[in-house]
Design goal:
Elements (H helix, E strand, L loop, with lengths): L4 E5 L9 H8 L7 E5 L2 H7 L5 E4 L16 H6 L4 E4 L2 H6 L4 H13 L3 E6 L3 H5 L3 H12 L9 E5 L13 H18 L7 E5 L4 H8 L6 E4 L6 H13 L1
Parallel strand pairs: 1-2, 1-8, 2-3, 3-4, 4-5, 5-6, 6-7, 7-8
Helix pairs in contact: 5-7, 7-8, 9-10
The chain binds 2-phosphoglycolic acid.
The site of 2-phosphoglycolic acid has 13 residues, from strand 8.
């Protein structure tokens, strides 16, 4: 059985005053699932004192050194994180991150003892020209390191066109991609059947139940609806019941 994950990505949002929301999320009963919040680095140490999992939003491929403005996986670990996102589409777009860079970052995360949540997903034009599964194949082959196991790696499928837009793929579209990812993981990794695959992109309380009923959806990576406990805890509840 794959233990389900409700993960929240706070992106470049939230101040000290917003830790109260994280505290409400952390104290919401959710024994049956793993709950993870990925806050900005400024809040990571404080949030890590709460009873929930925490993660970085990115890490550098090197373990330390002259990389102004970057953060090392070991520093995330030192601040209390047990996860980090790698390859989020906003990193791929804003910072030109390639599959090879994301692979190296994921290795650094795993070497530091973190669970890498490796993000993949097609753009709208790729979806429309029928190349979704080809793009996914390239991202899976390129971004997931050979050292990945079900214990150190989680995959997040996030169609770029669904992130922050309120647009959601159909359940059939989500199911097709998740099944495709599962087949890749099973072919490549001895424990590929145990690796968790999250869906992300405009998940909210009103669509969570339907998404969590899809085969091979082992949880969600949630952006906007993870910032407030009132929005995120119903998603946690839907996942716990799925
Ligand atoms: P969203 O973001 O839930 O706001 O669409 C998801 C993400 O970027 O991880």
């Amino acid at each position: 059985m794959r233990r389900k994950i409700a993960a929240g990505n706070w992106k470049m949002n939230a101040m000290q005053g917003d830790l109260a929301e994280a505290s409400s999320i952390a104290n919401h009963p959710a024994d049956a699932i793993d709950v993870v919040l990925c806050p900005p680095a400024t809040l990571l140490a404080q949030m890590s004192a709460l009873p929930l999992g925490t993660g970085g939003q990115d890490c550098h491929a090197n373990s330390a050194g002259a990389h102004t403005g970057d953060i090392a996986a070991s520093q995330l670990r030192d601040a209390g994180a047990s996860y980090t996102l790698t390859g989020h589409s906003e990193r791929r777009t804003d910072h030109g991150e390639t599959n090879a860079m994301i692979n190296a970052k994921s290795v650094a995360a795993i070497d530091a003892g973190l669970i890498a949540i490796i993000c993949i997903g097609e753009t709208l034009s790729e979806r429309e020209n029928g190349s979704t599964l080809t793009i996914i194949d390239g991202q899976l082959a390129g971004s997931i390191p050979d050292c990945a196991t079900a214990l150190n790696t989680v995959i997040a499928y996030e169609p770029v066109w669904a992130i922050g837009t309120g647009k959601i793929p159909s359940t059939a579209q989500i199911g097709e991609v998740h099944d495709h990812i599962r087949a890749h993981l099973q072919n490549r990794f001895a424990d590929g059947n145990d690796m968790r695959i999250l869906y992300g992109g405009s998940v909210k309380a009103s669509n969570a139940q339907e998404i969590f009923a899809i085969a091979n959806v082992d949880g969600a990576l949630v952006g906007g609806a993870s910032l407030k406990a009132a929005d995120f805890t119903p998603i946690m509840d839907a996942l716990a019941k799925a």
